Amino acid sequence: MPATPVPASNLATRSPDPDHVEALHRIVMQSLDDDQAVDTISIPLAGKSSIADYMVIASGRSTRQVASMAAKLAEKVKRETGRSARIEGLPTADWVLIDAGDVIVHLFRPEVRTFYNLERMWSFGDAPAAPAEGSSAALAQDSSAAPATDHAAATEHDAPAPGNG
Questions:
Q1: Are 74 and 85 in contact (CB under 8 A)?
Q2: Is pLDDT larger for residue 87 or for residue 160?
């Protein structure tokens, strides 16, 4: 089913209001919890990156669960904020990116998440490695930690990126 174009005025954008940012973050975290996301972590980016205030990373047990979580999250963001989140990677659902403006969400199948290890690439300070497949620990990053110095590397041929199936 082709995506329906969303008017630019309704797309998720960054908010200057910290209360709005925190409310959106709560909506995202609650939606993922309700949908039984695995190994959900939230990385605070405020003051460290201009792309968002939070990056949330979670896994689903299958492509079907990843796709379902992404669709429900986008619907919930639209219903509660009036703004449509941008979604990439939904057709293959190995790695789905949801851009909700102040919160960027990455949903993965476990083996794809382990391969890319975004936790280590984007966290600041002593970040845990990507959870091993089947792990169920929920982690949160410390927002006062210093920037990380090494980054995970991957080639474009090793695993699919969002939207490339």
A1: yes
A2: 87
75 contact partners, CB below 8 Å, separation of at least 6: none
Domain that holds residue 63: 15-128
Q: Which long-range contacts (CB under 8 A, 24 or more apart) does 61-66 make?
A: 61/110, 62/109, 63/92, 63/93, 63/94, 63/109, 64/93, 65/35, 65/36, 66/93, 66/94, 66/96, 66/107, 66/108, 66/109
List pLDDT tens digits, range 132-156.
554 444 333 333 333 333 333 333 3
CA–CA gap between residue 45 and residue 95 (Å, rounded): 21
Please count the structural domains in the chain.
1
pTM beyond 0.85: no
Specify if 122 maps to a domain: yes
pLDDT of residue 7: 43
CATH code assigned at 65: 3.30.460.10
CA 103/CA 21 separation, integer angstroms: 8
In a domain, 115, yes or no: yes
